[in-house]
């Protein structure tokens, strides 16, 4: 019997839906029975993922409960479509006995595999302010040859605002904030940046609206492909 995927979702719901869709779209299935079993716990009640140094209710207890629920429901492994929540990844992993695959590690590993021989290794990371402050990606890339570039403080405000637009479900190509993000990306392209990495799960949902020649990497798609690979393994 193949393995069952557990998705710890709800951060946000549209990003969870995006991951589910990408798993379906990339599974080599001719009939229903060829698809993997997937248990989705869409828990939008998890508190906001802000930097641990900020005074707020921690999302950790709810993340642990959600992971435990997935394990109890029969998931053989867990994936979580939220980059910022990986601040608490190691703590959550301690509370379940099934594998919990890191979106951060998978993204970095995939970039090194597919783009390791690329001459221009300048990466633009678009993420929440919390993810940037926590240096989740810089830590994983520390031994690589890639050059990590993040937006300045004013640009970051625009990125965070665009993420909120996506979370609201009101995405359209004429949205002023998304247009500003697109302009920012093209400016970085003109400055010699080769790759864009959407390190917030709402960012790839904007990709169809961007008009740019910069190559865009979708960590949600990379996570979907990892999940398919693991699900096809025999128990």
Automatic annotation (TrEMBL):
GO molecular function: amino-acid racemase activity
InterPro entries assigned: Asp/Glu/hydantoin_racemase, Asp/Glu_race, Asp_race
Entry keyword Isomerase: yes
Top-rank taxon, per record: Bacteria
Annotated keywords: Isomerase
Protein family (similarity comment): Belongs to the aspartate/glutamate racemases family.
Name under which the protein is recorded: Aspartate racemase
